[in-house]
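Sequence and structure are kept together here, with a separate record for every protein. An example record follows, reproduced without changes.
>
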Amino acid sequence: MGQQQFKDQVLFQQVSQNDVEGIKSLRHEGAGLEWSDKEGRTPLILACANAKLYDVAETLLELGSNVNAYRSGCNAGTPLHHAAKRGLENTVKLLLSHGANPLALNDDFQTPLDVARDNGHSDVVRAIESHICLFSGWMRQFYGTSFQELFSPQLLSRRVWVVVVPTSSGNPSKPLKLELVVYAILQDAQPITVMPLWKAKLEEPRSDQSDASVIIVDNSSKRKKQRRRGYISHARRWAQVDRQMRLKLAAATKGDIKQLNWFCEACKGTPQPMNLPMFLQTTEKIISNELTPSVPLLRAAVEVEDGSVHYPSFPSTNFESKEGSGGSGVCVICVDASAEAACVPCGHVAGCISCLKEIKNKKMGCPICRASIDQVIKLYHV
C-alpha cells in the first residue's frame, strides 16, 4: 500500500471516530478527501449518514470535499441522498447551502426529494422543497364532480399545501421540467397528488370571478375519444372531463388574486423575483415547462445580478456545427464548462470531463444519442 493511499484511509477512519482536528491535520499533510471503502462510501458520504457526524461533514466541505460525489452499488447516490434517506434535516440543509444538487438521480432514478418522501421524512421534504420550489403555500382545492361544484363550490373545498418544483427528466441534456405537488397537511411526507405540468393544460382565472380559481388538467391521462352518434348531454360531458386528472385550486384567502397569479406564473416556469428559490439564486438552471398551447412555452435561464432577475433566451445548441467549426462548445449537462470530452464509442463531444464521467458511472448513456459509454476521453484543442 502506498503512502498516499494509507493517508487517505486513515482520514476515512478519522471520520468514523468524529476526529475533526485529526482530519484537518491529515488533510494538511496531503491526505485525499475522495477515497472510498469497499462499500463505496467516501468520507463525506460516511459523515452524511450519521447525525452525530454533522461537524465532520461541515469540516470536510470546508476542506473541499466534492458535495456531489456519486458512488454506485449498495451505497449508491450522492451525500445528499444519504442524508435524505436517514432524515438528517440539518445535514441536508448544510449540503444544500454548499451547492448539493437536489435533482441528482441515484441508481434507482430517484432524487433526494424522492428518497425523503419514500422514507417518510417530512422535515427533509420541506427543506428540499423550500430550496427549489417556484411556489409554495396553502390553497383551497375544490373536489367532487364538476357537476356538484356548480351548485355548492364552497362546501366542497379543503385546505391543502401546494408546491411547484422542478424535477429531473433523467436526461442531462434536456432542461428541467416542473411538477405540481399537493399535500393534505404539512406533516405529510407523501403527497396526495403529483401532476406533471409539462403535460398539463392550465386554464387561468377570469377577472370577473368573485372567488377566482384555476383549473389544471393533465392531458396525458385523457382517454382516447371514441366516435359517438347522436346527442351527448351536458352531464355526460362533465363526466368525461372528470375521468382526467383534474385540479381546481383557489387562493387560501378568498379574493387573494395576487397569490393566485403567483401560482399561475410558477406553473408556467416563471419564479417571482421576491420569492426566488435558493436553487435558482445559487445556480444557473434552464427550466422548460411545455404546457399545452393555452399557456406559452417558457424556456428560460434565471440569472441574478445586483438583485435583478433576467430571463434571457437560449438558442438551441448545434453540436455538429460546433464540432465542424473547431469550437469546443458548451457542456450540455452543466451548461457552464466547455465541451472538452468525447464519449466512446459514439464519439460525441457533449460535455466537460467531470459531467460525462458522472453520466458514465450512472450508466445513463451519451446525452446526445443515448448510446452506452465505454470510455470518456478528454480532448485538447490546438
User: Anything to note?
Assistant: The longest strand covers residues 157-167. The domain at 1-128 is CATH 1.25.40.20 (Serine Threonine Protein Phosphatase 5, Tetratricopeptide repeat). The CA atoms of residues 161 and 318 lie 41 Å apart. Confidence is low (pLDDT under 50) at residues 222-243, 292-328.
